[in-house]
């Protein structure tokens, strides 16, 4: 793995104790950088390690150039088909945001600043195998819960 510049935002990696289950909510709060390219939120079976590719139950990749939010999952090392339809793009350079990822029985429901943004049907089971949350990219995190 290449060395990261010390000034770069290292992001956040945390454990979801006991794994994900319906009715749980993950909250990511932060401030978008002034010149953002992308922000990623990944819910996976374990933190990414150099030699292993964990299963990913949800990858949310916010791209500012095309104002899109790509959603995908990785099972047994293979990425599925990305989804990117959504009603609006809630992120703006220099602005604070609160993203909530609500785990429901059939899907993840994603809200930003209290507004429903999109959903993503579960592709990975059991949900309890999802035990790691990573957030990184062009943002300053203020809270992860």
Overview of this structure, please?
It is a single chain. With 145 residues, this protein is mainly beta. Helices cover 0% and strands 48% of the residues. The strands form 2 sheets. Strands 1-10-3-4-5-6 form a 6-stranded antiparallel sheet, with no helix packed on it. Strands 9-8-7-2-11 form a 5-stranded antiparallel sheet, with no helix packed on it. A hairpin with a 4-residue loop joins strand 4 and strand 5 (68-75). The protein is globular, with a radius of gyration of 14 Å. The chain starts with 11 loop residues before the first strand and ends with a strand. The model is unreliable at 1-8 (pLDDT under 50).
SSE arrangement:
Blueprint: E1 12-15, E2 25-32, E3 38-44, E4 56-63, E5 68-75, E6 78-79, E7 96-103, E8 107-112, E9 115-121, E10 132-137, E11 139-144
Antiparallel strand pairs: 1-10, 2-7, 2-11, 3-4, 3-10, 4-5, 5-6, 7-8, 8-9
Poorly predicted ranges: 1-8
Q: Give the class from helix and strand content and strand pairing.
A: mainly beta
Number of strands: 11
- Major beta sheet, specifics? 6 strands, antiparallel
Quaternary status of these chains?
single chain
Strand order of the largest sheet: 1-10-3-4-5-6
Question: Nearest-angstrom radius of gyration?
Answer: 14 Å
Shape: globular
Helix content: under 10%
> What series of H and E elements makes up the topology?
EEEEEEEEEEE
Q: Would you tell me the overall average pLDDT?
A: 91
Give the DSSP E fraction (strand runs of 2 or more residues).
Answer: over 45%
How large is the count of helical segments? 0
N-to-C CA distance = 28 Å
